[in-house]
Specification:
Elements: E1 3-4, E2 12-13, H1 25-36, E3 52-56, E4 63-67, E5 70-81, E6 92-99, H2 110-130, E7 140-142, E8 146-158, H3 163-177, E9 179-180, E10 183-186, E11 189-192, E12 201-202, E13 210-217, E14 221-224, H4 228-231, E15 236-242, E16 247-254, H5 261-299, H6 308-318, E17 330-334, E18 337-340, E19 358-361, E20 364-367, E21 374-376, H7 384-411
Parallel strand pairs: 1-16, 2-16, 6-8
Antiparallel strand pairs: 3-4, 4-5, 5-8, 7-8, 9-12, 10-11, 13-14, 13-15, 15-16, 17-18, 17-21, 19-20
Length: about 400
């Protein structure tokens, strides 16, 4: 059983399917005879889809869809705008469809191209907005002040039939792949953060409707995903949008041929079986793109592997580096602040004498120019004898300080 997400709509339009390809009477007869014998020109069965290829670009939301030889590209742009007076808590989701003149000769005529564009835009609006696939209320930032405006630009590069499915799949794939910038809201002030500061946020998509189109051929034969040559013979096109929950969102019929309800139910059942395949293709491609983006992000920091310290650490972890004797890093004592001296530090004295020469000057203690007071950082690898010697040196310095203090007191 199938539940209806919106009212079942089956609109029969007087608009005839237009194609630039001129099909002769012999070709029509050949195609019709092949369909009566259960064969299609490309070898597919009546319910089989063409090969679906999904590619994503570098920019978030850019998508390239190929359904057989039909090719569509799409991209998404977003910006903050003021909402309408009647819906202050809803954002905007707009669609812009362009029929490239390279797709087909018929689109060189502006009138015919605009008719097809309007038909596709109306269907996309019903599939994604009217069925509430995209939550436009989640695009609200400050009610009555700021909302997100999402615009999907779709361009048909090549038309080999069934551009409705290709456009809808490309639009949905772009929306699933797109991530809007993160924002900070303080009162009525909205701050948009770039991707370098904060991670972008995906859109709130409540369900995923997939459009599957069928061609109504002579003899009441229904075929899935008709090609351009099959559309020239078909008497009508019926498009069914079904989501992954087996909910029928939209049923749209193009063409003047009457169709019985049993054929509509047959199309709905076939579309429900194809939804999982299309959605899995899109999600798999999105997952692969996420892995590639993660690798590219890590590759930006590959220069860190060339650093000597990191390389030595990797070699030491593998056990390839030769064992070097442990040395103590001296620490210079200056005004009660310590700083570690690296082996390449020019101020370091490798052969510092353990005994310090102390001069007496009018009640003050100073070090000679050739000696420094150095203390060693405690290390578990030291021997007990070394620790005892260090403690004795510290005690000698303290005793000298005490003697100097006593002498100063006596002079006073």
């Amino acid at each position: 059983s199938y539940s209806f997400c919106t009212l079942l709509e089956a609109k029969s339009m007087s608009m005839k399917i237009e194609t630039s390809r001129v099909v002769s009477g012999n070709e029509k007869e050949f195609i019709s005879q092949a369909l009566e014998e259960g064969e299609r020109l490309d070898g597919r069965s009546f319910t089989q889809l063409r090969r679906l290829a999904v590619k994503f670009g570098k920019q978030s939301g850019s998508c390239d869809i190929s359904l057989g030889r039909t090719r569509v590209v799409s991209s998404i742009r977003c910006r903050t705008v003021e909402p309408t007076e009647y819906r202050p808590k809803e954002g905007f989701l707009d669609f812009q469809v362009t029929m490239s003149s390279m797709a087909d000769v018929i689109y060189s005529s502006h009138r015919r191209s605009q008719e097809n564009v309007d038909a596709v835009r109306r269907l996309m609006n019903r599939v994604l907005v009217t069925s509430k696939a995209v939550d436009v209320e989640s695009l609200c930032l400050v009610p009555g002040k700021k909302v997100w405006s999402i615009r999907v630009d779709v361009t048909v590069l090549e038309d080999d039939g069934n551009i409705i499915d290709a456009v809808c799949i490309a639009t949905l794939a772009s929306l699933l792949h797109f991530k809007r910038p993160e924002v900070t809201i303080r009162g009525t002030e909205v701050t948009v953060h770039p991707a370098s500061e904060r991670d972008p946020v995906p859109l709130n998509i409540q369900h995923v409707p997939i459009v599957i189109s069928f061609g109504i051929m002579p003899g009441d034969i229904i075929i899935t995903d008709p090609t351009l040559q099959e559309q020239s013979v078909a008497s009508g096109i019926i498009s069914v949008a079904v989501n992954t929950l087996n909910q029928v969102c939209v049923v749209n019929k193009v063409g003047g041929t009457a169709l019985q309800s049993q054929f509509i139910q047959q199309c709905i059942r076939t579309a429900a079986r194809k939804v999982d395949y299309v959605v899995s293709r899109i999600t798999d491609c999105i997952a692969e793109d996420a892995v590639l983006r993660k690798k590219e992000g890590l590759a930006k920091f590959s220069w860190a592997k060339d650093r000597k310290s990191v390389g030595d650490m990797e070699k030491a972890s593998k056990g390839d580096a030769p064992q070097q004797p442990e040395t103590d890093a001296p620490v210079e004592v200056t005004n009660r602040r310590t700083r570690s001296l690296s082996p390449d530090d020019p101020d370091q004295e490798p052969d510092a004498a353990p005994a310090q020469k102390i001069k007496k000057q009018r009640g003050t203690i100073s070090l000679s120019s050739s000696a420094k007071l150095t203390l060693c950082v405690p290390d578990d690898s030291r021997t007990k004898r070394q620790k005892v010697e260090e403690e004795n040196e510290v005690e000698e310095v303290e005793e000298v300080e005490e003697i100097e203090e006593v002498e100063e007191a006596e002079e006073v």
